[in-house]
Amino acid sequence: MAILPLVHIPDPILRAPSKPIERFDGDLQKFLDSMLETMYDAPGIGLAAVQVGEPIRVVTIDCAEREVNERGEEDPDPKREPIFLINPEIVATSDAPNVYEEGCLSIPDYYAEVERPAECTVKFLDRDGKEQTLEADGIMATCIQHEVDHLNGVLFIDYLSKLKRDMVVRKFTKIAKQSGKPFIG
């Protein structure tokens, strides 16, 4: 496994639709493991392949509660419940809305409240290529919708006002220009 470099806005790859996975092999399994390791290292609860520069329809998610001790320190050996969504398709959403403060590994240190459906149903292939269906609510539903949006070239800032979205993009464009490494962080 390897920690993969994260792609940040304004890299145009984040706006490109991702291609479906057609072959399950050892290379895909290694990539899934590296994506998971990258997500945990970041740290995050979801990661789409396009966020590490691979525009393929692959997502890793782990919304398991992180245990924190009385000193406010996270458990060094946390309970992990990773889910791999390959070629995910959201097939149903609830009418009831839910608002969460979202962040994104491709937009570091920026958070905003986003309204999405409170529940969703997603069909996908699991790590072994078996078809699965998952009904989700709460933070899991939000995370699934956020990551599937990535696969479609949509970012959570697209749900914000044009003014807020433009301010974020300008900030990260300026950072990219100043760093001399235009897009990959």
State the domain count: 1
Task: Give the termini separation.
Answer: 19 Å
Mean pLDDT: 91
SS element count, helices? 3
Poorly predicted segments: none
Helix content: 25-40%
Structure keywords:
alpha+beta; two-stranded antiparallel ribbon
Task: Explain the overall architecture.
With 185 residues, this protein is an alpha+beta fold. It has a single domain (12-179), classed as Alpha-Beta Complex (Peptide Deformylase), CATH 3.90.45. It has helices spanning 26-41, 138-151, 162-179; strands at residues 46-48, 58-61, 83-93, 97-104, 107-117, 119-125, 131-137. It is globular, with a radius of gyration of 16 Å. 31% of the residues are buried. The mean pLDDT is 91. Belongs to the polypeptide deformylase family. Its EC number is 3.5.1.88.
Topology:
Elements (H helix, E strand, L loop, with lengths): L25 H16 L4 E3 L9 E4 L21 E11 L3 E8 L2 E11 L1 E7 L5 E7 H14 L10 H18 L6
Antiparallel strand pairs: 1-2, 2-3, 3-6, 4-5, 6-7
How would you summarize what this structure contains?
The chain has 185 residues and is an alpha+beta fold.
